[in-house]
Every structure is written in C-alpha cells, then in structure tokens.
C-alpha cells in the first residue's frame, strides 16, 4: 500500500499521531471545507501548467490508498472501534486534501476529477458529522453507498496516467557511516546481487561520504565482471537504507537524499515507542507483555515484590544483548544473563540497579514462561516484508529455541531452530499444533498490517517476536526493524529487491514543505557566527516571533547558573537542509543571533503541535525530547471532567456539570441550581462563557463578558438555540465566588515539573474579574493579588494559612490524577479553583496549553532544571 505521499510536503508518512481531540478534528474540517478553493482563488494563470510524471503517478497512488484506507475504515466502523476509525478517517481527509490541492492548480489536466472531488467532500463532511455522534449505522451507509463509490470513480479518472517505468531500475544500497559492503554479511550481499540480476535491476553500494550533491553523482561500489569496482554514477531511482535512525540523528547527507529519492525503510522506534503506540490505539494491546520503564530503583523493587520474577531489557537493544532475568526470593535476588547467574542481597541488588540499569534506559517486563517439554526457552520470529506489489508477506516464520540453561532463545546467542509446525505439533499435539501454526501466521499478517497502518503505511520490513505460553496464549515480545536472516538471505532478497523496484516505479518521495521557503533561515547565505558548542547540554526554547521575551531572559539567567547553554528560536529559524538553527543567545543584556546545532531538549513555548501549518516543525525535531507533548489545541473540558469524575476520588471538588444535548438540559440545571455557567467544551480566555440565572419575575438574567441582558423564556430559548448551533457546550452549576467588594474571583494554581520531574508550585494567586461572573486575564482588564493578604481581607473568618494548605492539597491531587490519564509528557499545568461561601474549593478548569505567566523567574527556576532532567534521562 502506498502512503499518502508527499506532493509539496502535504502529508507526512512518519506521522503516527491521531487527532487527540476528535470533536475538534471534525469541527475544523467542517468549518474549513472550502479553504482550498479559497486558497487557490486567483491562480488561473497556472491552470495551463502540465502535470509532471511524478505528480501524475503520485496522485494516482494517493487515490489507490484512499480506497484501501476507506475499506479499512469501514471494517473498524463495523467493529465499533471509535479511536481507530478516527485515526483512519483523519488519514482519508489528508489524502483527499492532497489531491484537491493539485487538482485546484492543474485544472486543465484534471477537469474530470473536479465533480468527483466535490461529491467526496460532501461525503466526508457527512461522515465526520455522524462519526462524531458515533452513529455507526449512518456512517456505514455513507461509506458503502456514497464515499467508496465516488472514490472508485475518482480513481478511474486517473487511470490514463503516463507510464514512467524505467527499462532498468537502479537501486542504491546505502548506509550513512560506511559502505554497506563493509557492514553487510557476504551472504546477504551475494543474495542481493543474485536477485537483482533475476529482477533486472542495477545495484550500487555507497555511504554518505560518496555523495556529491553539486554534480549529482555518487562514487559507488558496483560488482562487475566478478569483482568490486568504484564508479561514478547518477543518483539511484530508489534507496534501500541500512540502519534506520530517528530523524534528528540523520546526517545532513541522508536528509537531503530523503528529500530527493524514495527510501524503502522507516522505523518503528525503540522497545518503548511501539508498545506505547499500541496501547494508545488499543488494538492488539492484549498481546503486549506488561512492562514499566525503569527510572529509579523503587520501580524495580516494587515490580519484583508483586511479580517475584521479571525480565529487564534495554529500550534500545538487539540480538538478545544485555537482557537480564531476575528472580526474587525473600531478600535475595538471582540475576541471570544468558548462562551466567549471581545471587545478590538487597543492598548489592540496589547497587546493581544503579550501576547497570540506571546508566542506560531499561524496561522491566513480566516474565512469560515459554518453554518446550525439555525445558528449552523458545519464541517465534516472523520475518515480514512487503513484496514487489507492495503487499505484506511472511518471508519466514520459525521458532528460536535456546539452551535449557539460558533465559534466551536468540539464535545469535547459541540457540537453534526447526520448522514451526514440527515444533508446535511436538509440544501441543497434532490438532492444537496445526491450529496454532495457522493462527500464528494469520496473526503475523494482521498485526503487521495494523502496525504499518498506524505508521501511515511507511514500513517495509519487520521482525515480530511472538511467544506462546503453556496455556496457548499468544504474546508479542517486540517488533523490530532489520531482523536477522542468516538462514534465509535469498528469500529475503526476493522481497527486498522487489519492493525497492515497486517503490521506484511509483515514485514515493518525502518532501519537506519548508525546503525552498524564502522566509526560512538559510545557513549558506548567512554571515552569522557559529555558536561554540561544548559538552554542556543545549536547551532550546521554541517560541513564536512576537512572544514577550521576559520568560526567555529569566531562563537565560537560570541556564547560566545551571551551567547549560540556552537559546531561543522560532519555526522560521530552522535550516532543515543543514540541520542548524539561528538561535538567539542572551549575552551582556541583549539578544545575539548565532548559528547553532539542534538542542538536546526543547522547552516548547510555541505549543502548536498537531495544528495544521506547523506539523512539519515538530516532525523535523522528532526524537528530541520536548517539555510538552500535548497537541496545541485546548483540551476538551468535558473530557477532563469525565476523566476526573471517573476516579470517584475528586467528587467533593468537581462542580456538577452536563454536556448540553438539548436546551432543556440548560433550563433543568437553572431550575436545580438557580444560576449556571454555560461554556464551550473547548476554549480558553473565557471566550463564549455565559452566566445565566433565573430571576423572581420568571425572567432570565444573561451575562457574557460585559454584556448583560434580560430574557423571557421564549427569547432565552431562541438565544440558546442560536448559540448551540455554533458549537458544543457544557452547563455547570455556578459557584458564587466573590470578594467583599462583590467582584468575581478565582484562585490560579500554576504548577511546573522540577529538576526531579516532580510537580512543584510555581505560583498561587487570586485573579479578580471586572465583569459580572467571569474572570478576565490581566491583558483584558483583570487583576491579581497576593494570596495570603487576599484571603485575610476577603475571608477574615477563615485561617488563611490553613486555607492555603487546603488549596495546595486539592491542586496536587487534581494534578496527579490528571497526569495519570495521559501518556503524553507535559511540564506545566494551571488549575483554576473557585471558593464557595464556606471557602470550600471547587475545580473550575484545567489548563495545559500555555498558561499565562505572572512571575517569570519562578517559572524559569523550575523549567530549566526540568529540561536538564530530560536531557540527562535521554542521554543515559
């Protein structure tokens, strides 16, 4: 299957993240359904341009993939898998948008497609509406009878694509640091050479130092007339790359090549990344062996107290190296590595954790016993590859059987293998063995196709390490790139060469949309000096161009004290080709521009991850730890309330609320509580927030900011009906929180992660509003004060110090509970609390999207040490 590939960088085959806020995703799409026609208005002078061969074949490929993705979407809808459906639907929308942009520009070539695109757009809007409401029957109807047929008709409009297949494809076998002939085993190279001859392709072998971009030539190694020769040759049609690395670790040469030539291989991340994605998207998560990331010795000791036995694996590791089996009995710990074993007491075991595990990144995992009747550990390796048609195939599936004296089944550590069916029949009997063989093959294909889908169809090869325990339950230990193929190199080469030819013929190239942007920083045309880079950590603050620099100055002072380098940069300050940044360094009381390498950690004050137009910034810096991993849009208030309420531990501070489905929901709340707050599900800065109360004369008093109006029930219903047509709202009991002067107020608790990655209080202060019932920011007229003095003046009957401690306790509980619900990392949170007439605190809102700052230095004193913690953790 071809990814929604990359005309002008419109989509990203690496992107694996579904929209975090589904309702927002749908609303954005529906509200901006005509944005492309507006964007291209006035470009009629371009309509006579002819599509290039690349563009023709790419839009055809996107169209093919749209059909495949829609079929997958229909399957998920039939299974009522909401999150999976949203993820795939988002990809379908992206593919549609990619085609729409090209058709809008190249109108002459693609007139026949315009009508189909208009119908598809309407189908997508209807699908989004009903998917949002989880109306699965209606979604199925739209897909089956409208969307899919229209996509197929659109596809037929692209069938007359010009043939661009070369008579002979040249495949580049590439490794960044060394020529592959020095890295690959001889058997693999021989198999590739043999298969390339059979499939009539040329092979060249090269590394980054062999590439000359000025001449567009490569000094490659080729095998001719029975010997290796060095020749100068043109760039290849496709590159089969060895040693998949994270984007920020790729060399400049590799990054440039990726923007010019199709690459076959993209990674699935380390041992932690893949299971985290599977848990996020839920499907197949039951195959995962439970694990925890080791960040301190308590995690290991607590895990062993519960499980007694565990396996410890490096998060980045291969071939069964540095894997330990630990068994606890009383205060003794047996630590086994391969066939070596030692027994440690508690103190020695803690020392071992510090010197062996915490120096690197490890995970602790439940020990799943999978042994033969003879006591030999075994697992099943499924080597999966895409073939010459771009379809997944099982290249080989086989058991890896280790010594009974070892915990490992890895063949590279002395194990053996045999035919899978033979082993399964021997261990489980004829009927069960044959059935398990069939089920493992089916699972391998389904799991691989699923993993490819959540990686936007960019994978080409996987090694699945599966296990089957004595009860017959299947487990997934891990999935990795570039699996070993010592005993089946020729079978592997068939698919390696076939898929590379397939990629070349379909011209699947990843472009970067900022590559030729005139606004983007260009090192080659800059006369700026280079910053001196030393062994200290580099912390980069990503911010907007117009952001106030008070926090940046404070961070610069704290960074100097902490002995780390600090600079700020904006999205336009990145040179994507050279992997360098125009950073702003604070020196002698002023900001100085210098060219600097990418940072070790990014303090994200830009906060636009996942927002269209800015995705490429975050994709480019993928792999560098960010202080905040949340998407840039505000979190749904309803989602937050529902999650917190589900614990039943915070009921005493959660204000009664309800999602508004009908106007009667609002009126019922008004009848029950007298006064309510009506606010948008998503939003900030009190936009769209209404105070509504019922008066003695059966009239209704409505306040929005400084606008106060009286309504009859009829006029209120009309007003609310118009309001609800514009978005989704929550109704909530109004907590009367006022100063002795009658002004509304709340308590803002701003918390940050500290140098130990623990939550600390950055600031706590009252915010006093100038309107009737809502709090204004200081920028729009609101004002703040000191907490203790404020409490003593406005709540004189309460003990201010005791009340402050109560506020802190509530804030800590909410923050810890909120954090437990999300896998995404974030270092900052702000809570808005109300105090009722008895000074009891209630939670109004949770804000993780760039909360306002009052004391910049207090924030910097926590933000910089926490960034250092992230850098230290990543480099261990």
Automatic annotation (TrEMBL):
Domain DUF8042 as annotated: residue spans: 57-158
Molecular function terms, GO-annotated: ligase activity, forming carbon-nitrogen bonds
One Pfam family, short name: ATPgrasp_YheCD
Cellular compartments per GO CC: cytoplasm
Superkingdom, natural source: Bacteria
Protein known as: DUF8042 domain-containing protein
């Amino acid at each position: 299957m071809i990814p929604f590939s990359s005309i002008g960088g419109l989509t990203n085959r690496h992107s694996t993240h579904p929209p975090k806020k589904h309702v927002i995703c749908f609303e954005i799409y529906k509200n901006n359904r005509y944005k492309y026609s507006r964007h291209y208005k006035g470009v009629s002078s371009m309509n006579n341009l002819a599509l290039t061969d690349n563009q023709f074949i790419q839009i055809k490929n996107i169209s093919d993939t749209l059909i495949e993705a829609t079929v997958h979407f229909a399957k998920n809808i039939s299974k009522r898998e909401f999150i999976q459906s949203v993820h795939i639907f988002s990809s379908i929308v992206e593919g549609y948008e990619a085609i729409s942009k090209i058709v809008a520009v190249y109108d002459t070539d693609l007139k026949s497609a315009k009508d189909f695109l208009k119908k598809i757009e309407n189908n997508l809007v209807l699908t989004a509406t009903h998917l949002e409401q989880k109306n699965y029957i209606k979604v199925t109807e739209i897909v089956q009878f409208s969307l899919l047929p229209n996509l197929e008709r659109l596809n037929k409009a692209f069938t007359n694509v010009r043939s661009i297949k070369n008579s002979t494809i040249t495949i580049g076998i590439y490794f960044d640091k060394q020529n592959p002939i020095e890295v690959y085993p001889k058997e693999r190279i021989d198999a590739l050479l043999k298969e390339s001859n059979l499939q009539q392709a040329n092979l060249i072998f090269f590394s980054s130092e062999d590439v000359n971009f000025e001449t567009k030539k490569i000094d490659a190694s080729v095998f001719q007339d029975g010997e290796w020769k060095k020749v100068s040759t043109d760039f290849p049609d496709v590159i089969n790359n060895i040693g998949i690395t994270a984007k920020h670790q790729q060399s400049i040469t590799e990054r440039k090549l990726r923007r010019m030539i199709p690459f076959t291989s993209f990674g699935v991340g380390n041992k932690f990344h893949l299971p985290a994605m599977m848990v996020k998207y839920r499907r197949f998560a039951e195959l995962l062996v439970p694990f925890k990331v080791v960040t301190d010795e308590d995690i290991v000791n607590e895990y062993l107290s519960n499980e007694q036995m565990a396996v410890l694996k490096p998060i980045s590791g291969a071939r069964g190296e540095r894997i330990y089996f630990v068994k606890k009995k009383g205060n003794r710990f047996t630590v086994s590595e391969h066939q070596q074993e030692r027994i440690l007491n508690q103190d020695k075991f803690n020392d071992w954790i510090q010197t062996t595990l915490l120096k690197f990144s490890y995970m602790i995992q439940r020990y799943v016993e999978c042994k033969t009747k003879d006591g030999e550990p075994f697992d099943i390796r499924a080597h999966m590859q895409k073939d010459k048609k771009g379809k997944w195939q099982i290249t080989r599936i086989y058991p890896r059987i280790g010594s009974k004296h070892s915990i490992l089944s890895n063949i590279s550590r002395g194990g053996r293998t045999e035919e899978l069916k033979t082993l399964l029949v021997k261990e489980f009997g004829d009927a069960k063995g044959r059935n398990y063989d069939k089920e493992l093959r089916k699972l391998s294909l389904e799991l691989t196709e699923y993993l490819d889908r959540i990686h936007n169809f960019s994978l080409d090869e996987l090694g699945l390490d599966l296990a089957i325990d004595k009860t017959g339950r299947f487990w997934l230990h891990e999935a990795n790139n570039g699996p070993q193929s010592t005993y089946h190199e020729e079978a592997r080469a068939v698919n390696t060469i076939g898929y590379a030819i397939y990629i070349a013929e379909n011209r699947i190239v990843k472009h970067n949309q900022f590559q030729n942007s005139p606004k983007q920083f260009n090192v080659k045309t800059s006369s700026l000096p280079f910053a001196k880079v030393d062994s200290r950590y580099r912390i980069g603050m990503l911010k907007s161009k117009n952001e106030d620099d008070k926090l940046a100055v404070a961070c610069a002072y704290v960074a100097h004290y902490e002995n780390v380098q600090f600079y700020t940069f904006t999205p336009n300050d990145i040179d994507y080709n050279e992997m360098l940044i125009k950073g702003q360094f604070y020196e002698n009381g002023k900001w100085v521009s210098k060219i600097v390498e990418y940072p070790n950690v990014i303090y994200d004050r830009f906060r636009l991850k996942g927002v269209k137009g800015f995705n490429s910034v975050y994709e480019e810096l993928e792999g560098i730890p960010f202080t905040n991993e949340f998407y840039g849009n505000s979190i749904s208030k309803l989602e937050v309330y529902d999650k917190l309420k589900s614990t039943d531990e915070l009921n005493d501070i959660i204000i009664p609320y309800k999602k508004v489905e009908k106007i009667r929901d609002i009126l019922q709340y008004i009848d029950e509580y007298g006064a309510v707050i009506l606010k948008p599900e998503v939003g900030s800065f009190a936009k769209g927030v209404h105070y509504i109360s019922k008066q003695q004369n059966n009239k209704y008093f409505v306040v929005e900011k400084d606008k106060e109006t009286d309504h009859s029930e009829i006029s209120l219903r009309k007003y609310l009906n118009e309001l609800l047509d514009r978005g989704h709202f929550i109704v909530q009991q109004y907590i009367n929180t006022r100063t002795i002067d009658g002004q509304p107020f709340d308590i803002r608790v701003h918390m940050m992660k500290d140098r130990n990655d623990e939550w600390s209080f950055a600031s706590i202060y009252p915010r006093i509003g100038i309107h009737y019932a809502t709090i204004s920011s200081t920028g729009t007229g609101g004002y703040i004060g000191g907490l203790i003095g404020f409490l003593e003046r406005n709540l004189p009957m309460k003990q201010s110090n005791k009340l402050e401690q109560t506020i802190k306790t509530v804030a800590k509980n909410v923050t810890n509970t909120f954090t437990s619900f999300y896998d995404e990392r974030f270092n900052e949170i702000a809570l808005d609390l109300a105090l009722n007439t008895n000074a009891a605190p209630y939670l109004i809102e949770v804000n993780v999207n760039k909360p306002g700052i009052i004391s910049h230095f207090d924030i910097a004193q926590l933000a910089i040490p926490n960034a250092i913690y992230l850098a230290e953790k990543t480099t261990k």
